[in-house]
């Protein structure tokens, strides 16, 4: 009986994996696990930017958050200021160290993550989501071409 259920389970899984609706949505994840599904770009200084229209959301990478340790304070700029690519716009302090944060592109600060003032540990909990730092109106979209995609960034910072 267990052999029958074992073969049936394999058959059900094979069907699920080979049906057109499932395989067209998920086949890239099965056949190419290293494919880049993220639309984020990364700077060498460990900041990421995710762009929608001409607004970029900026944060620090998961790797940087792990290296920093428990984040206890975040210093962010005021809304409306202009920042240049590769220039400092704030700082992140942890129990281990303090680190400047650099803008991956040039633009005007449209918004800051005020939640970080109350709970800086959001960076540790979700650095790629709720732990974002600022939103920028991008001035020069060509600067995005100089940044790494997620695959390049992860390969460079593994280990």
From TrEMBL:
Pfam families: GCV_H. The modification N6-lipoyllysine is found at residue 96. One of its GO terms (cellular component) is mitochondrion. It is found in: Mitochondrion. Binds 1 lipoyl cofactor covalently. Its main location: mitochondrion. InterPro entries: 2-oxoA_DH_lipoyl-BS, Biotin_lipoyl, GCV_H, GCV_H/Fam206, GCV_H_sub, Single_hybrid_motif. The keyword Secreted does not apply. Keywords: Lipoyl, Mitochondrion, Transit peptide. CDD domains: GCS_H. Its cofactor is (R)-lipoate. GO terms for biological process: glycine decarboxylation via glycine cleavage system; protein lipoylation. Residues 55-137 form the Lipoyl-binding domain. Belongs to the GcvH family. HAMAP family: GcvH (MF_00272). The H protein shuttles the methylamine group of glycine from the P protein to the T protein. The glycine cleavage system is composed of four proteins: P, T, L and H. This is Glycine cleavage system H protein. It comes from Galdieria yellowstonensis.
